[in-house]
Every structure is written in structure tokens, then in C-alpha cells.
Amino acid sequence: MLEFIVEFFSTPAIVIGVVALVGLLVQKKAAPEVVSGTTKTILGFLILGVGAGAIVGALDPITKMFMQAYDLQGFVPFDELVVASVAAKLGRETALILGLGFLVNVLLARLTPWKYIYLTGHMLWIHAGMWAIALNTLGLSTTAIVAIGSLIQGLYTTLFPAMAQPIMRKITGSDEIAFGHGQTLLNVVGAWIAKLFGKPGESAEEVKVSESWSFFRDMAISMSIIMLIVAIPAALFAGPEYVEQNLSGGQNFLIFALLKALGFTAGVLVLLQGVRMFIAEMVPAFRGIATKVVPGAKPALDCPVIYPYAPNSLMIGLITGTVAQVLAIALLIALRWPIPIPSMIVAFFASGSGAIFGNAVAGRRGAIFGGFFWSFAGFLLASWSMHVQLFGDLSALGAAGVGFVVPDGIAIAALIRLVGWLFGLGG
User: Fold this and answer.
1) Of 14, 15, 114, 309, which residue is 20 to 30 A from 4 by alpha carbon distance?
2) Which residue segment(s) compose the domain that 412 sits in?
3) What digits encode the pLDDT tens for the residues 91-111?
């Protein structure tokens, strides 16, 4: 039963499909509309997933070439892998927190002014695991871990989308969808700071380009050029021997780098198509939940839902996030703290979102700062959490060489440890 709960709630396409189905049934739509709406919602989300998978598949070898080229070593910031690695010891607690926490979220959305239902499945699973690990370091019983963890999960999934919603309204131009991801804290804080010096009227999405450079207006072209600038030098510095023996399976190292750079752009285009299809079906279906089960409810969704609204900002975040990671690593080397391995995946998905949030409230300057701030502050937070063993000895729990990077979970885990310390728990 616990395995079923984990599989259900950590499979976003299933959760999204059920929500769409319930929403359409509550609205008493005709059978053809129910089948069509539910199917297209799932397909849109799966297309989004295919695009995301292609992006990760392209960025992973580019990151490895980057590491080899500049001789970097450290821990891998990979939230899913941490939670999966400790499942043998804390899997039951994680599953119960995940399921019960979702019920708390629905209850709070029903009873409070914060009408947000958190539907990002893998983030629900990651945060449930983070609370289980953090509470475990306090020496609490399984019952206490599950009870407290479920309450934290429900509060988090209700309040953090509410915190991001004022900026989400600016991004999307509506109040129909909310933001549901573990990067919310740094997105919002970065945008707040950017407001101090940014110019909201100078949006990155309205940058004027000379006619001779007009091809840069095409996102597919500009993004491809940016990725080629990143991938080709990384391949050259890593060397043909390393790339062809460890990454490309014998394919010429430059051709491999070229295809990965262009494959990244292809993945982005697929992802955006999936987002458009998914949102077009999901929002009308969710109105059934909003009107009947939790009046006024809004779905809190994964970070790619905002990408179509600000593609220029997304690219700015990729660039500034990459630069920020390099500078953060230099600082961490000086501090002699654990080094998070550079991640183009973080630079795209996290700093890209941070740039979109920054642009919404502070224009181009906000986009530049928001993307930079996320990766710089995010890497410092991830390193600090390993340095102070915020989540205890992860290696002893089975998660050697990997660490958390989502800032929401790290910040709340720090609060958990502080409260535990005040009560004399956990040492």
C-alpha cells in the first residue's frame, strides 16, 4: 500500500490526469469531453516530460565535459537521488508524509484564504523525504516524524505558492495557475532584491534587436548559439579521448558536442509545446475542483509552466546562472566548504525561473540578477547544508556523494533543526 502511495503521488502525469478527470466530472461534462480533456491533459504533461528528459539528456554530458575540462570535484546536487538513496531506511516515513501531507494541503486550501493545491509530484516526494530526514536527525519516533512531517508538508504546499502568486500574476497576466516548486524561496527573494534597482518597464521580452541581428529574435536560433558556445569549448578542453571514451560511445567529440547543444534546444521546443497543450486542457478542467471541492482553488504547477511567458528571460537565466555557479565555486574553494558539482540543469530550470521572476518585477536588470542570484545563493546554501550536516550523515543513510539543492527544503530543514535544538533534540 505504501509503495502504491509513493508511486501514485510521485508520478505527476497520473496525479494531473486524475485531477483533470475529477474536475471535468464535477462539471458534468459529456463523456467525449471528459475523455478528450483527461487524455490531452496527460499527453500534454507527458510531452512536457519528453522535452525535459531531452534537456537533461543533453545537459548531463555537457556538465561532465565542463567538470573534466576544469578539473572539478565535489558532491552532486541531486535531490531525487538523495531521497531515493535513503528510501531503505526512511521510505515508509516519506510515503506517509507524502500522502497525509497532500490531505493537509487540500484541507488548508478548503478552510483558509490560501486556495492552492500543490500538484508537482516529484517535488511532493522530494520534500516529504527532506522532512523525514531532517526530523530523523532529531531522534524522533516514526509516529512523530510522520505527524510533524505531514503538517509541515501541508503548510509548505499551501503557503509557498501563495508567497509566489503576486509575481505569478505579473508573469502570466492572470490568476489561474500558481507556482509549485522547491525553488520558490530564491525566486521570490531574488525578485524582491531586484526591485531595488531594476526597471519594470524595460522587460527582457521587449529587447529591440538590429535588423542585421534579427535572427536572434528566434528563440530556437539564439538558444542554439548559446549552447554551442558552452558545449564546444567544454569538449575541446575536456579532450577527444575523454569525450569519446566516456560519453559519446566513440562518436567524434565535436560532433557529439554539436548534437548535444542542438538537442538541448530541441528539448526546450518540445517542452514548450507540451506546456501549451497541458495548460490549455488543465486550467478549464481544474475549474471543476475550484468550484465544487475547494472553491477558488488554483493548481500549483512545475516550473516549466512559466517558460512560454518569458523565453528571453529563460535564456538570460541560463547564462547568468552558469556564471554564478563558477563564482560560487571559487568562493566555496576559498572557504573550504563542500563543492557542488556545476549543473547546467540547475542553471536552466532554476536560474531560468529565477530570471523570469526577476524580469516580471524589475525588467532586464531583474532577469540578470534573478538568474545569477539563484545559482550563486543556491550553491552556497547547498554547500552550507553539507558543511554543517543539516540532514545528518547522508552517507550513513545510503546517500554518499550527493546532496540537496532545493532552497525551500534546506531553509525549512534549518528551521526544523533550530526548533529541535531549542528543545534539546538532535544535538
Assistant:
1) 114
2) 2-422
3) 888 878 888 888 899 899 999
